[in-house]
Specification:
Strand content: under 5%
Oligomer: single chain
Number of helices: 12
Shape: globular
Order of helices and strands: HHHHHHHHHHHH
Number of strands: 0
Length: 245
Amino acid sequence: MNIAIIGLGLGLNLHEAVSVSKDGFFLTFIYVLSVFTLGFVFYRLLKINKNTSLLITSGTAICGGSAIATISSVLQLKANQITIAMAVVFVLNAIALMIFPFIGHYFQLSQYQFGLWSAIAIHDTSSVVGAAKQYSEQALEVATTVKLSRTLWIFPLALLIGYFNKKENSSYKFPYFIIGFITTMLIATYFPQGEKVYHILQGISKQLMVVALFMIGSLINLQSIKQAGFKTLSYGILLWIFISI
């Protein structure tokens, strides 16, 4: 998983990332802060498992399965500890992919409005792209740009969570894969002559991420959802509904 995350950095240009982040910084900052504030409130009210709450909140706030995978690597959680977070996020992604275009048309949202809304309210990048593409090409362009800005928050978030986890866990190990990601992004930015090689390596990294998420997802079944309980499922659903609205 860590190797896949590092390889994804080869697909990002630092200057473009900074430009996109600057444009959507305030909007995505307010969004991420709102998700974690609501997540904390629901966590205290429903009294669910702390790590599960953190994973679902991270997946909702940032980029779905990729955020859950990154944060679980920082916390060094076992696969069975993150299956429920994946299950909740994947199910809600599937629902969003089907109903968001319908809702957008019903409320007569403009292409810009829908692109912005889907980029903010849908968890995974793939589902954001899928929903926006159904709406229009302009909505897709807006959604992709804002989603990238939102996704960039995963790295400061991972460092922050890692810092607090270090205080609570003496066996904590610094998430060096984040440094690896930044390094590969810098290489792709300042040595563009290797673009063809970077493209191939990034493709391999994406496939590794898909395999890793698939392996985790293969542990998701009706039994694991039952073990999670009604409160955990309600946590993820309520958080997503409030944020979507």
